[in-house]
Structures are given as C-alpha cells and as structure tokens.
Amino acid sequence: MRSELLILSGDDVQNLVRTALESEEVVKCMARVFEMVSSSEVGEGVSSEHDRVQQPPRLTTLSPEHATLYMPCRLPAPVTESSSVHSAIKVVSVSRTGGGGGIPGTTLVLDESTGAARAVVNSRALTALRNAAGSVLATRLLGPKTPTHLVLFGAGLQIKQHARLFIQSYPTITHCTIINRSLNDRFKELLADLTTEFTNLSLEGLVSESQGIEPAVRGADIICTATSSTQPLFNSAWLKYGVHVNLIGSYTPAMREADAGLIKRAGRLVVVDEAKSCLVEAGELIDAVITEEELIEIGTL
C-alpha cells in the first residue's frame, strides 16, 4: 500500500507558525523534548534502544561553497497528545562564502512502520521558532524575572524569532538592541519589521564596530547570539551580575560567540541541551576546557 508524501513549502510552514502554533505551546514542547533527551541518557525507563531518544552526533560535509549538516533523530514517544512517533533527519546547507543559496533547512520524516518517506518539510521557520523557544525556556528557568533590556547579535530569521518570542514572553522588556556585522538590507528589513510589530518598544540597531556596543552589553538583562562568528562578539568583562546569555550559533570547534572567560565566570551554571554533543561542537566550551560533569543539561532542570 502506497502512502502519500506530504510536502510543506517554506510558505506553508510560515503560515502554520503564524496561525496554528501558539508560542507558549512550543516552549512547553521544547521542555518535554529536553526532558526526554536527558532521561534517555541517564537510563530512566530505558529497557532497549527503541525506548531511548536516538540522536547521533551531527555530521558535516564540506564543499568550497557550503557546509552541509545532517541531523538524524528518533523520539521513543509522542511529545504531544496530537503527535505520533516518527524518525526524521534534517539537512541544512550553510554558505561558507557569505553568499546565498544552500538549503536553509529541510526535514525528511519517515513512517514509523514502513520506514517510507511521509513528509518533506522546509524547516527554516520551524528551526528558528524551536531555537527561540529553547532560549526562552532556559531564560525562564535561570534568568531575570523582570528584564527590561534585550540585546541580540545577528540579523537572520533566528534573531527575528528570538526578538518576537522574548518580547511576547516578557512584557517588561522595553528596550531591544540588535547588533549585526553591517547595516545590510537584511538588517534594515529586520529593524523595520520589528518597529512595525512592536510600536511601544525602544529598538536600536548597531553595527559591530560601533562604540555603542559596550554600553548596550553592560546594560543588558538578556543577551542572545545567533551568528557564525569565529571570534567572541563581546568582552565578557562587560557583563553585569545576573545577566542571562543564550549562545546558539556555534556548531563547530572553530566557531565561538563568547570568550572562555564567560564560561569560566558562569561556573556551575553552564546549561546546554546535550552535554556530549556540545563538548564536541561548541568552540566556546572547547576553549574553556570544560568537562561534561561541569555542564547542566536543561532537561534535568
């Protein structure tokens, strides 16, 4: 018996994100997934490999133009009442030259019984929403309760979704500073969109060489970074006590968005989604020579 293949384009997914996905439900879903990942690792209720979250380390292939990432996964149980068990693999192709092209994120969903392809999903918007929800969850668990100043590094969809979700989740945020490498068209469009959407927000855009970066970082209650930087984006000595920092950009040992001093300063409050993979992929953690025992998985909180 042949099954139909569902294909969801970028526009299809964007419409679902806007009309059918409540941001609070996505945050709760991420909490459940993180819990399942950490529970599987420590062996709670795991009697066989089928009962475990299967998430092999991310694979990367390199070409002169792109780095392509392959991320397979299988959850042992539905995350929500309306979902079912599936295996999936996401493929993301990232430009190595700063140009366009590539695959911003495509997920292949496999049938649990037959292994056949059930769906092909453009995952760009979903990835941005998921990452933002994970950052909001981490901030709720560990960050300030009434933040007023949000600082963001980057100008892509990840940062746009972070801005939207944080401002919606924290009505106390009145000031948002976004810092990007240059005042390019994408950055201008991001600032214009957020200005239109959040009319009561004080929004400031800065480029990386601006002298305004240090005072912005010093005054931040929450900082989120989503870049491909290979150099720290700010001096960790600028951070005030109690600031919460979400670093989501690094996925290779050569990438780093913060200096080793930040990791050392955080001490026992370095929280990650999965310790083993982060110690292999995150340049910040590798530079800080941190051990798995010093990391806290968010799913255990």
From TrEMBL:
SUPFAM superfamilies: NAD(P)-binding Rossmann-fold domains
InterPro entries named among the record's database cross-references: NAD(P)-bd_dom_sf (IPR036291), ODC_Mu_crystall (IPR003462), ODC_N (IPR023401)
Cellular component terms (Gene Ontology): cytoplasm
Assigned protein family: Belongs to the ornithine cyclodeaminase/mu-crystallin family.
UniProt-recorded name of the protein: Ornithine cyclodeaminase
